Amino acid sequence: MTPSENFVPIIPEFLYDINHPNATLDKLSRVTTTTTPSPTPNPCAQYIKNQNADISVTTSSNDFDNVSTVFTTTLDPEQEEQKMRHHDLVQETVEVGMMFASKAFVQLLANPFVGPLTHKIGYSIPMFAGFVIMFLSTIIFAFGRSYSVLFIARALQGIGSSCSSVSGMGMLAERYPDDKERGNAMGIALGGLALGVLIGPPFGGVMYEFVGKSAPFLVLSALALGDGLLQLLMLQPAIVRQESDPPSLKALVTDPYIIIAAGAITFANMGIAMLEPSLPIWMMDTMGAERWKQGVTFLPASISYLIGTNLFGPLGHRMGRWLAALLGLVIIGICLMLIPLATSMNHLIVPNAGLGFAIGMVDSSMMPELGYLVDIRHTAVYGSVYAIGDVAFCLGFAIGNNLT
């Protein structure tokens, strides 16, 4: 379970509660409006007023030949409340999108430094540093009570994710030099990411609904401590210098095959990045969705991503990783076109499931391909190439979050 996914369904409503302490979304989502028919105007009256309209009637001095009627429509309090709620949610989409994008943007800036750092000190120390930073950011999320504090915590996650992602993928590529075994290992690793994505949103949504905002992050902090202890016992962080000279970052960035693989990762993840901040708010606005429903709606994508990464780790090697990525991108495009057509939560199940499965196809195919490209075209040192891969991943989320 990852903190970045755990807070997906929590933050939009929490920010709304901060800005509107006397009006929660749960109450507003159950508002029903009723209209009262206007009484029939009496031509002999000079002024008639009811709940929905003010009618002013002016007559001539002799007869009713010249009658001017002015209607000034007014919304009843419930309709006005819904209109204001819709406006506030649209405005909040921008704030939430910027907060989500801050992690990807900071991670984007950190990756070019973390990649070369792994060449000098190895993978274990940056990975442990990533755990420490993620643990601190999770604690801040648990007790933060303002937009600025939560924004800083989200940005800190970018540094922690950069250390963990680049080090983790580089370590796997180094430990599994055979291309087929590497694909299987990275498929399992991406499956671990999928498991966090799978559990995070519904866990966060249900805990926030029935326990409170701090509860899911405190549970997550305890789990993170366990992860840190395992790293200390199993990896025993220490400085390990690379024997081979690493390829320059410029040589990797100018390699057309690496750029195409990185581009596939970017475009594959851009779609889900657009949905993360906007889908819960859209469901609140159009469907009156409760907190737990906002989290559960990501379940189909998470489950299918878990299946896709584990299936196409080995299958991508057999059928061709470029072909698997191409098919995945096509499916992503189709699913993204279907999501805006949904009118209920049930209509989101199939496109979300297809989206998650297709992203799993692309990620589990292109991540091992990056290591393979370094093996056959450069020197088998993997920190920088997986920094590029993580930059591609973050670029998709930075662009996608801001597009909302």
TrEMBL record:
<dbReference type="GO" id="GO:0030672">
    <property type="term" value="C:synaptic vesicle membrane"/>
</dbReference>
<feature type="transmembrane region" description="Helical">
    <location>
        <begin position="215"/>
        <end position="235"/>
    </location>
</feature>
<feature type="domain" description="Major facilitator superfamily (MFS) profile">
    <location>
        <begin position="51"/>
        <end position="404"/>
    </location>
</feature>
<dbReference type="GO" id="GO:0015842">
    <property type="term" value="P:aminergic neurotransmitter loading into synaptic vesicle"/>
</dbReference>
<keyword id="KW-0472">Membrane</keyword>
<feature type="transmembrane region" description="Helical">
    <location>
        <begin position="379"/>
        <end position="399"/>
    </location>
</feature>
<feature type="transmembrane region" description="Helical">
    <location>
        <begin position="256"/>
        <end position="275"/>
    </location>
</feature>
<protein>
    <recommendedName>
        <fullName>Major facilitator superfamily (MFS) profile domain-containing protein</fullName>
    </recommendedName>
</protein>
<dbReference type="GO" id="GO:0043195">
    <property type="term" value="C:terminal bouton"/>
</dbReference>
<dbReference type="GO" id="GO:0005335">
    <property type="term" value="F:serotonin:sodium:chloride symporter activity"/>
</dbReference>
<dbReference type="Pfam" id="PF07690">
    <property type="entry name" value="MFS_1"/>
</dbReference>
<dbReference type="InterPro" id="IPR020846">
    <property type="entry name" value="MFS_dom"/>
</dbReference>
<feature type="transmembrane region" description="Helical">
    <location>
        <begin position="322"/>
        <end position="342"/>
    </location>
</feature>
<dbReference type="InterPro" id="IPR036259">
    <property type="entry name" value="MFS_trans_sf"/>
</dbReference>
<keyword id="KW-0813">Transport</keyword>
<dbReference type="InterPro" id="IPR050930">
    <property type="entry name" value="MFS_Vesicular_Transporter"/>
</dbReference>
<feature type="transmembrane region" description="Helical">
    <location>
        <begin position="295"/>
        <end position="315"/>
    </location>
</feature>
<feature type="transmembrane region" description="Helical">
    <location>
        <begin position="121"/>
        <end position="143"/>
    </location>
</feature>
<keyword id="KW-0812">Transmembrane</keyword>
<dbReference type="InterPro" id="IPR011701">
    <property type="entry name" value="MFS"/>
</dbReference>
<keyword id="KW-1133">Transmembrane helix</keyword>
<feature type="transmembrane region" description="Helical">
    <location>
        <begin position="185"/>
        <end position="203"/>
    </location>
</feature>
